[in-house]
Write a sequence for this structure.
């Protein structure tokens, strides 16, 4: 676990997203939860040392950010699109996946439920807890439902997966041009540190590099479309894995992710 500022902690070593939490004068506010139940239980013990969990914010609609909600108290807050994704998630599929990839987690799934948000936002929501302010801002990009969590008193933003720091980004549900705009809006927040969805904690100086990565993806697929390639031809030809590696826990997925990213951009850019 990393202490980002006096009151903010984040874990970048778990499999899945980077969960974090903020210690306020009136309890703890969590941002995302560990994907693996064994990690969620460890994380719960860690957080308990800092106080009771008051709120839990999910930054986006992918399971690596919300599967661990089950293990925590606190009122869950997320974008309404994330609530829909959570309500549509299948516990049977989760069990099947863990059975194949990480069966040591299965005993912890007794009585499992997804613990969906009871408070949602579509554009903005401001939460005041103790002496801290949490500005939740919809920033479409990695999906339309991304939420950045800005804590001005600490000068920190939890960016969601709109920032993948030096690891390969997932674009399979991306809105690519809005992503570029959202990164501009992100750079306007007065922050010293960004806690990205994946990869190590970074500073706002990384934002231009992230924009360049998204632009490189747009350019590669636009080029293939303008040359008249079919989707399959574009998928066979395009790989940007030499730019950034996969996260180590996901390494085997690299070639498949390239095809998923191409498929999404091909569909969006063809319009
Ligand atoms: Zn994601």
């Amino acid at each position: 676990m990393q202490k980002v500022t006096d009151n903010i902690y984040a874990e970048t070593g778990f499999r899945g997203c980077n969960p974090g939490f903020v210690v306020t004068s009136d309890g703890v506010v969590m941002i995302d939860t560990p994907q693996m139940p064994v990690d969620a239980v460890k994380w719960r013990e860690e957080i308990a040392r800092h106080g009771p969990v008051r709120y839990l914010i999910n930054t986006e609609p992918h399971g690596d950010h919300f599967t661990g909600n089950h293990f925590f108290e606190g009122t869950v807050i997320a974008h309404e699109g994330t609530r829909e994704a959570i309500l549509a998630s299948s516990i049977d599929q989760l069990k099947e996946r863990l059975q194949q990839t990480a069966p040591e987690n299965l005993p912890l799934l007794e009585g499992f439920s997804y613990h969906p948000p009871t408070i949602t936002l579509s554009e903005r929501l401001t939460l005041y807890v103790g002496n801290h302010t949490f500005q939740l801002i919809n920033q479409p990009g990695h999906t339309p439902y991304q939420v950045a969590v800005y804590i001005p008193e600490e000068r920190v933003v939890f960016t969601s997966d709109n920032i993948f720091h030096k690891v390969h980004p997932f674009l399979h549900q991306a809105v690519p041009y809005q992503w570029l705009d959202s990164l501009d809006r992100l750079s306007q927040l007065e922050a010293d540190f960004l806690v990205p969805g994946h990869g190590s904690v970074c500073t706002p100086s990384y934002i231009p590099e992230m924009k360049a990565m998204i632009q490189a993806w747009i350019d590669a697929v636009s080029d293939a479309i303008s040359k008249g390639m079919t989707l399959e031809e574009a998928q066979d030809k395009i790989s940007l894995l030499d730019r950034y590696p996969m996260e180590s826990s996901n390494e085997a997925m690299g070639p498949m992710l390239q095809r998923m990213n191409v498929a999404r951009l091909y569909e969006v850019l063809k319009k």
